[in-house]
Amino acid sequence: MAISVSIPNTPKTKKENIIATYNLHKYFYTGVGETQVLHGIDLEIKRGEFIIIFGPSGSGKSTLLHSMIGLESPTKGRVELFNQDLYAQNEDERSMTRLEKIGIMYQQPIWVKAMNVAHNVALPLNLLGTPHREAMKIAEEKLKSYAMDKWAKYKPTELSSGQQQKISLIRALITEPEILIADEPTGNLDIDSSKRLVEGLKELNIIGRTVIVVTHDLQYLSYADRTFYIKDGNLAGIYMQDETKELIDDVLNKGKSIFKLEKTAK
Amino acid sequence: MNLEELKSRFGPIFETLFSSVFIEITIILIVIMLVVINIQRFRRYRIKVSLIDLLYIAGVNLMVRRTRTIVTIVGMSIGIASIVFLVSIGYGMQDLVISEATRLEELKQVQVSTQAGSKLRLNDTVLADLKKIPNVQKTLPVVAIVGDMSYKQSNAAIPVYGVTTDYLKESAIQPVYGELFESNETYYEVKQAENLTEVNETKNTESANLLENPVEVSEGEEFIELDTENTDGEKIDVDEINLPNTALKEIVMNRSAIEIIGLPFDDAVGENVSLAFTVTNQHLNREGIKVVSLPENFTIVGVLSDNSEPAIYTPFFNLRTLGVVNFTEVRIITDDQNNVQRIREQVEAQGYLTTSVQDTVAEIEQLFSSVRIGLGLIGAFGLAIASLGMFNTLTVSLLERTKEIGLMKTIGMKSAEVRLLFLIESLLMGFLGGVSGLMLGYLGGKLISLILTSYSISKGGNAISVSSIPFTFVFLVIALSIMVGYLTGLFPARRATKISALNALRYE
Q1: Nearest one of B128, B121, B112, B145 to B326, comparing CA atoms
Q2: Dist CA B350 CA B334 (whole Å)
Q3: Chain B: nearest CA to A56, how far in angstroms?
Q4: Does A92 touch chain B (CB under 8 A)?
Q5: From the CA of B431, how many Å to the nearest CA of chain A?
Q6: How far is A23 from chain B (nearest CA, A)?
Q7: How many distinct structural domains can be found in chain A?
Q8: Residue-wise pLDDT tens for chain B (508 aa)?
Q9: Is residue A2 part of a domain?
């Protein structure tokens, strides 16, 4: 994927925390009783990192992600975004934080179906209060830079899932957010498209953006600076880029993995 | 507590509640209140997204579900149209009744009279004063007395009105046969004074002197003074007097008067009848006196078709020659009907009584405002059903778009903005329904008028307009449709804000 991106002003330093969770617990209360989803997760994500949150289905990684972006208030613990307690803010303030600082790519591309590609891409700008014409101009320029401008007048649902995912990425980047979050971005794509997408995300990361990818796909773990392995609501391990082979082995050889993983975690 | 008591106690309250002005004001106030509340909300939540963008998003959402939107708007417009149609007929009927009951020129007129037993008089001075009031064009005096009429063997006492030609014209009194007499003269004494010698001038410029010294009124008039007693035993001087030569001995009679005297209605014009006037002291400026004119021949110059109260019209000037100084009534002609109220207040402040056709019009309007409310309520059922349809459309659209709403929320749309988006959709539908309903109802009313007119013309009648929409009603209907749109959208909009942003992130 050929990607041209404007570079955020912040230098790539790995010292500053951009997202941090402290003793994050999340319980859901259902008719049957209490379901514990997260059991005290502590993690820190530095500015400019490429992070993969990896885990099998039902491990709680999605809940973790939702908590980190202010959509799921924790039962216990704290989330800090840009060193500020996220859940000390009210809902509208969290909305503003998301709007200004975070771009999200969804597992399935979701659109305001009534609007064409250009308007969908411009939507975050509209929500920011950018004047209509200016927003449309930015959106069209952005589409052009990704060579998608010829689809601008189409309805998003008329495009292929690969194209949709690309436009979804453009929409996530339209406000030039500091953090880009991709929730299972490769879920609907073939291997080739998936690879190009993840490479594109890596490029974005290299030029300075913090990228967080949630996936259960082992294939792309090697792209991450660090991988958080979430298992049964616990942070089962943090793997540096050169340790991904170890993680893959651990996951594939489940019988052996448990002891080893806990060791690594400490 | 009986019904009458209940009526007297709660009647005024109900009248107020159901008067259309009250309802109009209430609806417009509610809309203004809603606008103010929402603007405050807008500020409080620091809504960032521009209204244009919200309108755009709402607009395309309505456009993409075109059929459903159109059906809903048509439903709304039928609801609104049923109100507009029925109420416009209410207004149209009112206009029809008012135009039957009054003429347009009459709305510009005020009748001034004095209270029974009042010391106030309507005389030349007052007439001149009334004329000085701004916007008063004409002041036309009337004197009502009794005349003894005889024709061949028949005899009758019939009310006689001393009026000017202008008065008859302004009152739209138009003879079916013959014509009106031509006499606009109201100042008799002045003329007499000019004709008299210098010596007598001072004494004759006032009617009082004329009556005190009747002999001085020469010009060959006979003058006989009689003494009679009235029923109370009080002594009354009766002056019998001849009309001067300058008097115009013409009369206009209406059908009932002609029939009383036994004249053939169709051939009455040109006939001569004998007529004697009796002027009582309230018209003269001396107590205890009565002036009777000696019977003289009058020519009937015109007959009127109306057969209500018998009436004879004779030149005002004729009665002035009998010494009349106080008039029964003065009709004021104003330049514009909007000035009538102010002029009336000004005249009433001096202690006079005033009446105007506007009082009748006000009564008719009062009656029809109740009729309109009844009609409007019937139409409101249609609107209520239409708003249920709109509620349904909004709810379905909401459920279809849970993911979209989730998306917008994860991106960073605030609850207040989501709420506003849905409210705008329902307001748009309400507004469009209101505008199209207004047109539909208007056309419906015109269609009914057209059908009635074509029927009426085929029978040789005039064009009939039974529907009318005043300008304020247009505003009211638009305000009402916006209000219905708002209230209908309120619940779905609130529900939309409760949709979790996570809907966008969950995979199904």
Answers
A1: B121
A2: 18
A3: 15
A4: yes
A5: 21
A6: 22
A7: 1
A8: 566 776 676 666 666 666 667 777 887 888 888 888 877 777 776 778 888 888 999 999 999 889 999 999 999 999 999 999 998 988 888 888 888 777 777 888 898 988 877 788 888 888 888 888 888 888 999 999 999 998 888 888 999 999 999 898 888 888 888 888 888 887 765 334 333 333 333 334 344 444 444 444 444 444 555 555 545 555 667 878 888 888 888 999 999 898 888 888 888 888 899 999 988 888 887 777 788 888 889 999 999 988 788 999 999 988 888 888 888 899 999 988 888 889 999 888 888 889 888 888 888 888 888 888 888 889 889 889 999 999 999 999 999 999 899 999 999 998 888 998 999 999 999 999 999 999 999 999 999 999 989 988 888 777 888 888 888 888 888 888 988 999 999 999 999 999 888 887 776 5
A9: no
* A149 lies in some domain: yes
What distance in Å separates the CA atoms of residue B415 and residue B406, rounded to the nearest whole number?
Answer: 11
Say whether residue A104 is in contact with chain B using an 8 A CB cutoff: yes
Chain-centre distance for alpha carbon B199? 54
| Residue A188 near chain B (CB below 8 Å) | no
* Distance from the B487 Cα atom to the nearest Cα atom in chain A, whole angstroms: 25
Q: Burial letters for B275-313: b for 16+ Cβ neighbours within 10 Å, e otherwise?
A: bbbbbeeebbbeeebbbbbeebebebbbbbeeeeebbbb
Cβ–Cβ below 8 Å for A128 and B45: no
| Structure tokens that stand for A1 in this block | 């994927």
d(CA B281, CA B290): 6
Which of A54, A58, A73, A60 is CA-nearest to residue A218? A54
**Residue A167 resides in a domain:** yes
Q: How far is CA A8 from CA A44, A175, A202, in A?
A: 21, 11, 15
pTM of the model: 0.69
Cross-chain residue pair B502–A66, CB shorter than 8 Å:
yes
Binary contact (B410, A112; C-beta < 8 A) = no
Look at residue A5 and tell me if it is in a domain: no
Residue numbers in A near B413 (CB within 8 A): 95, 99, 127
Q: What is the CATH number of the domain that holds A194?
A: 3.40.50.300
Q: What is d(CA B66, CA B384) in angstroms, rounded to the nearest whole number?
A: 22
Pairwise CB contact (< 8 Å): A71 & B501: yes
User: What is the pairing mode between strands A226-231 and A50-54?
Assistant: parallel
What is the rounded CA–CA span in Å between residue B31 and residue B431? 13
| 3-class state of residue B441 by DSSP | helix
Beta bridge partners of A103: A180
Please give the torsion angle defined by the CA atoms of residues B477, B479, B484 and B485, in that order, rounded to the nearest 10 degrees. 110
The whole-angstrom separation of Cα B206 and Cα B193 is 9
Considering only CB atoms, which chain B residues are within 8 Å of A170?
A: none
Residue type, A37: V
d(CA A149, CA A135): 15
For chain B, give every domain's residue range. 21-103+363-504, 121-350
Structural domain harbouring A229: 17-265
Burial of B502 (0-12, 13-18, 19+ CB in 10 A): middle
